[in-house]
Design brief:
Blueprint (H helix, E strand, L loop, with lengths): L1 H20 L1 H11 L4 E8 L1 H4 L2 E2 L4 H4 L5 H7 L12 E7 L5 E4 L12 E2 L1 H12 L4 E7 L21 H9 L4 H11 L2 H15 L14 E9 L2 H4 L15 H17 L7 E5 L14 H15 L11 E5 L6 H24 L3 H15 L2 H10 L11 H18 L6 E2 L12 E7 L21 E6 L5 E5 L4 E5 L5 E5 L21 E6 L5 E5 L4 E6 L4 E6 L21 E6 L5 E5 L4 E5 L6 E5 L11 E2 L8 E6 L5 E5 L4 E6 L4 E6 L21 E6 L5 E5 L4 E5 L6 E5 L22 E4 L5 E5 L4 E7 L10 E7 L8 E2 L8 E6 L5 E5 L5 E5 L4 E7 L10 E2 L10 E4 L4 E6 L4 E6 L4 E4 L10 H4 L3 E4 L5 E5 L4 E5 L5 E5 L11 E2 L8 E6 L5 E5 L4 E5 L4 E6 L24 E4 L5 E5 L4 E6 L4 E6 L23 E4 L6 E5 L4 E7 L1
Parallel strand pairs: 1-6, 1-7, 3-6, 7-8, 8-9
Antiparallel strand pairs: 2-5, 3-4, 7-10, 11-35, 12-13, 13-14, 14-15, 16-17, 17-18, 18-19, 20-21, 21-22, 22-23, 24-28, 25-26, 26-27, 27-28, 29-30, 30-31, 31-32, 33-34, 34-35, 36-62, 37-41, 38-39, 39-40, 40-41, 42-46, 43-44, 44-45, 45-46, 47-48, 48-49, 49-50, 51-55, 52-53, 53-54, 54-55, 56-57, 57-58, ...
Helix pairs in contact: 6-16, 11-12, 13-14, 13-15
Length: 1107
């Protein structure tokens, strides 16, 4: 069978492709299958996505014992490769015209015979797992980089590193000419990719015969597989051999994901990143490959890094393709290479010709290599190492890996039907409510509920990194905030009109009609002090105010110099651009100014200094603006502008350098709702905000309404207000009258905050909870914990000994540390098998630098996994942080951190946790909370002055006492949460370094099983906490035998597991009915969001999942 199959390959592949092209013959299949929308997956990338595995290498599967699952997926009963029945493909690549048809082998690169890439097994797996028809759109071009060829629009121009420029100058190159040439090629293949996808979507029946437009399609996922040309480019990445040397790749990849989603109108499109893995796991590299190890590791980490960004949680995943490498195959190839090199050296010594040299080489290969090695080389390899050896086994495994990763993402997604993004909520799906203000103008209420406070013309409104809602009072001359518990505070401004206070406390400063506020990336607050013609900055750590732009006198001067020495004229709005530069609507000068983040130098970004009409698609530079009033940036990096006198909205295309008209005819009015935004009339819009899906929200001030431009269609909708000035009522937003609203901000959950200025209220638009949508029932399940004193068995059968800490590896492996009764590090793999990885039942301190299974721990309480695959273990009673390399199994003590043995039980590391950036390790030691920089080991105090006591709210955390910080966790906004065991409290250190108590300020131990506020809540000996996917805090309240969840945004504390009674019954039922016994650990699965609980004194691990 083998010989006949090999001989027939070219004919067979042509036959399969011909059959696939006979659309009419297969149209019945699509008609029968299309009882649901066509699912479309885009596969894109470089040559490895193109695919260089010759079809003949499928024979290798037949002689590889571990390839049986792949053979079962690929082969028919007679051993030939399958042709899909419900999967079509459009493939475009190097020097090829588009190939279309039913998916089969042969849709890889065309050079040197028929080939395949990951698309083949990806499609086979999808056909196996999904119902209905499927279309794969594949675009792949070899030899292309992300930094130039595939560079996405929002990443901007290619940034020449200084080292590269210096090298070009040394070579005598014309830098301007080089830049111009580079600009020509920048983004070309990105645009080709998007254009081909849109081309296919515009005429699907051309590719999928029998496709029914009435059933529609779902853009279901995107797979990206690329990297080689970036990894080896020392010009673009001059520091590639150092940690962080490929950070620019990570940033560009994040832009790529955002841009693809924007250009395909799919804001949450599931996205799989194929991490380059040629050569296999670096720990297996041979002597000849050691020099590449660091570079390969750095690049792989950089490729995977975007998947860890908060915005991409649950919809982007990185797959390490090194896992599919075939070491037997690569070892045989390396051995052959060494043998042929020796033959070359012998030929040189003997002065042999080329023909004789080949003969010597063939003879040596015959002598040195085993029969098995020679056979797999012939049957398994068809290309070079950087093309994964041209191995169908490797690329086939990768295709399955991509499909399985995508399938895990799909259940969490709502597919985007048709050619537009998901339907937006119509106004009847919203409700409006007053969040702050009585409706009476004035100043009162600090320290009490915001709804009972008097406000004085609230303008700009925004959520701060501390979860509070911040706003400025235009005529009140103050900056105030509303804490998550609803309490209002004044942060800046004495209430007097003036221009004073720089260099001193912000509370004593005076303002003159503040219009808008924004936070920078460091958590400092910026204020547009309009009638002082200035932008001011408040350092919220020190409370000191200063002026960063403007002199205090009106004018238009200072470009090219420091912003603090330049003149502005009635600035109204500010926003930070993607690169951190500050943009200012200098409305009195009819320009937008830009302040460079690093230098503080100011320039004019847009406008001429004179008012005038703005033509559509005009250049940004040299085009007049008319009353530039409010700005925001979209995820694409484009600036959006609402003009007050112009009554229009414009988008500034950062890539094309043009201004595009997006809404408003230029005439003042209130009409056009439900039609194209460009044909509607606006009435003095003074606020603009862009949501995560690209929809543009307007505070249309003089029509007293909130209006929205839909990203998918450009239609303008009325969402709140009647067009008439008034005050309420709350409830139906289309019946609620507003009064000259100025501020508008879209929150992370889609809620829209409004500075309803002349009703002196802060209002919020929220999405209604639809009663027709059933709430999914949850169940609590056993994950680990049985009676057998064994490992390498199913985790539910294996006995655990005081499981405490729990965290996750990038591959989904669960890692567990046992406390004093166990002192072991364990793991649970994806098949549910428990493995012993380090430590022994006998406590001690031993094993640094050696095999983890020989090491000893003593009472370890917690662990955390870094993105690098290194575990940090709080080896509490040894007073050390120990590390465990999940690749090598080596245990070490973290250098620079050690607690004396006699103090370890009192002040050892009780909790260690990595923040979401992967850079900082936070440690709680019952005295203080420390932060350790994982890059250089630098240690700093985050909270606690070393003394015992209850901290005062609002005090500097580093100067405050703590009772006994037992656990710590940092959220995605820069807040650090501190849990105190005997303090029975949850505290937070905000990004400004100030500490507050969120739960149980009294510190009295107790229990409250009903839902309540933080202040009214009670804790009893809480032991651990973690942050869930929505930035809520989950707490293991051990002595109450419950797990709690606290939402800092709305000050809500609720029980989510446990009855409050110690016990072990209830597994398999609802979490609230399941008894626990002193749970010491909680952890959120980073992909599924499931909560895992270490039910410590029941010696088991549980998880809460949807039924």
């Amino acid at each position: 069978m083998m010989k006949s199959f090999t001989a027939a390959l070219p004919v067979l592949v042509r036959l399969l492709q011909c059959i696939a092209m006979l659309g009419g013959a297969w149209s019945l299949g699509i008609k029968e299958a299309q009882a649901q929308p066509l699912k479309i997956f885009v596969l894109a990338g470089q040559s490895n996505m193109q695919g260089h595995a010759h079809v003949r290498t499928l024979e290798h599967l037949k002689i590889s014992p571990d390839a049986k699952p792949l053979r079962d997926l690929i082969e028919t009963a007679d051993g030939s490769p399958k042709v899909c029945q419900r999967v079509w493909i459009s493939s475009l690549g190097n020097a090829e015209s588009e190939k279309t048809g039913l998916l089969s082998v042969g849709y890889g690169a065309n050079q040197n015979g028929p080939k395949l890439g990951p698309e083949y097994t990806f499609g086979l797996r999808m056909e196996e797992e999904l119902e209905g028809p499927i279309l794969i759109i594949k675009t792949a071009w070899g030899g292309k980089s992300l930094h130039t060829d595939f560079r996405p629009p929002s990443a901007g121009a290619y940034p020449f590193p200084p080292e590269q420029l210096a090298n070009l100058q040394k070579q005598g190159k014309d830098i301007d000419a080089v830049r111009a040439e580079k600009e020509k090629g920048t983004g070309v293949y990105y645009r080709m990719m998007i254009e081909h996808v849109k081309h296919v979507l515009s005429d699907i029946p051309r590719v999928v015969p029998g496709y029914r437009p009435d059933e529609g399609y779902e853009l279901a996922g995107f797979v990206w597989f690329q990297g080689w040309n970036d990894m080896v480019d020392s010009g673009a990445y001059p520091n590639r051999d150092k940690p962080g040397g490929y950070d620019a790749y990570s940033e560009t990849m994040a832009h790529f994901i955002r841009d693809v989603r924007t250009d395909l109108h799919a804001p949450k499109l599931p996205f799989v990143i194929g991490v380059l893995g040629v050569g296999g796991p670096t720990e297996l590299y041979g002597p000849d490959e050691q020099r590449y190890k660091a570079t390969h590791n750095h690049f792989r980490d950089a490729m995977a890094a975007p998947a860890k960004l908060p915005e991409f949680q649950n919809n982007v995943v990185a797959i390490r393709t090194e896992a599919f490498w075939d070491k037997e195959l690569s070892d045989a190839k390396a051995k052959e290479n060494r043998t042929r090199q020796r033959a070359k050296e012998l030929a040189k010594e003997r002065k042999l010709g080329a023909q004789e040299e080949r003969k010597v080489a063939d003879e040596l290969v015959q002598q040195e290599l085993t029969d098995r090695e020679r056979e797999i080389l012939v049957k398994g390899i068809s290309n070079l190492e950087f093309h994964y050896l041209g191995s169908a086994k490797i690329l086939g495994g990768i295709g399955v890996g991509f499909a399985d990763a995508m399938l895990k993402l799909l259940p969490a997604q709502k597919p985007l039907a048709g050619s537009s993004q998901k339907p937006l909520e119509s106004p009847e799906h919203w409700t409006i409510e007053t969040f702050a203000g009585t409706g009476e103008q004035g100043y009162s209420g600090d320290g009490g509920p915001a709804r009972m406070a008097k406000l004085d013309n609230p303008f700009g409104v925004i959520r701060g990194p501390d979860h509070a809602i911040w706003f400025c009072e235009y005529t009140g001359q103050r900056i105030r905030r509303i804490l998550p518990n609803g309490v209002i505070q004044t942060i800046a401004g004495s209430g007097e009109k003036g221009y004073s206070g720089d260099g001193g406390p912000a509370l004593e400063a005076t303002f003159n009609l503040p219009h808008e506020i924004r936070f920078d990336s460091k958590g400092d607050l910026y204020v547009v002090d309009m009638s002082n013609h200035a932008v001011r900055k408040i350092d919220l750590r020190s409370g000191i105010i200063s002026t960063i732009a403007g002199t205090g006198s009106p004018g238009y001067s200072g470009d090219g110099g420091l912003a603090s020495q330049a003149q502005l004229k009635q600035p109204h709005s500010i926003q930070f651009g993607p690169d951190g530069d500050l943009f200012i609507c200098d409305i009195g000068n009819h320009v937008i100014r830009r302040v460079h983040r690093e230098t503080g130098v100011i320039t004019t970004y847009a406008g001429t200094g004179k008012p005038g009409p703005t033509p559509d698609v005009a250049p940004i530079v040299g085009t007049p603006l008319k009353g530039p009033r409010s700005i925001d940036f979209d995820r694409h990096g484009n600036l959006w502008l609402a003009t007050r006198e112009g009554n229009q909205v414009f988008r500034f295309d950062s890539k094309a350098g043009t201004i595009q008209h997006m809404a408003g005819t230029g005439e003042s009015g209130f009409d056009g709702n439900g039609g194209p935004a460009t044909q509607a009339r606006l009435k003095g819009p003074k606020g603009i905000a862009i949501d995560a899906d690209g929809n543009v929200w307007l505070a249309d001030t003089e029509s007293h309404s909130v209006r929205r431009i839909r990203a998918d269609s450009g239609i303008l909708e009325l969402v709140a207000g009647t067009g008439e000035k008034g005050d309420g009522p709350d409830g139906d937003p289309l019946r609620c009258q507003l009064a000259r609203l100025h501020g508008i901000f879209v929150d992370y959950d889609g809620s829209v905050w409004i500075g309803d200025s002349e009703t002196h209220r802060i209002r919020v638009l929220r999405k209604k909870v639809q009663p027709s949508v059933p709430i999914q029932k949850q169940v609590i399940e056993l994950v680990a914990g049985g009676k057998r004193e064994e490992v390498k068995i199913t985790a539910t059968e294996a006995k655990l000994h005081e499981p405490f800490g729990l965290d996750w590896g990038a591959d989904g492996t669960a890692w567990i540390i046992e406390m004093a009764a166990g002192n072991r590090l364990l793991s649970i793999d994806l098949e549910g098998v428990l493995r012993h990885r380090a430590g022994k039942l006998e406590p001690g301190f031993f094993g640094d630098g050696g095999d983890g299974l020989k090491a000893q721990f003593q009472g370890p309480h917690n662990l955390t996994m870094a993105p690098s695959g290194r575990l940090y273990i709080a080896d509490t009673w040894n007073g050390r942080i120990r590390t465990f390399d999940s690749g090598t199994g080596i245990v070490e003590s973290l250098k620079g951190y050690a607690v004396p043995e006699e103090q370890a039980r009192r002040n050892g590391p009780y909790c260690a946790t990595i923040d979401f950036t992967g850079r900082y390790l936070f440690v709680a030691d019952l005295r203080q909370v420390l932060r350790i920089d994982c890059r250089d080991g630098a240690i700093e105090v985050v909270a606690g002055n070393g003394k015992k006591g209850i901290p005062k709210d609002g005090a500097l955390a580093t100067e405050s006492p703590l009772v006994d910080p037992r656990a710590v966790a940092a959220d995605r906004l820069g807040n650090v949460y501190v849990l105190e065991r005997n303090g029975n409290a949850l505290r937070v250190v905000d990004p400004f370094g100030r500490i507050r108590t969120l739960i149980n300020p009294s510190g009295e131990k107790g229990v409250k099983l009903e839902t309540t506020t933080g202040a009214d809540g009670r804790l009893f000996g809480p032991k651990h906490l973690c942050i869930d996917l929505e930035n809520r805090v989950v707490i293991a309240d051990a002595e109450n035998h419950v797990v709690l969840r606290y939402d800092p945004r709305i000050d809500r504390l609720e029980r989510i597991a446990g009855t409050g009674q110690r016990g072990d019954v209830g597994v398999g039922g609802e979490p609230l009915d399941c008894q626990l016994a002193r749970p010491h650990g909680v952890s959120i699965h980073p992909k599924t969001g499931e909560l895992w609980i270490t039910d410590t004194y029941n010696d088991r691990i549980l998880r809460i999942t949807n039924e």
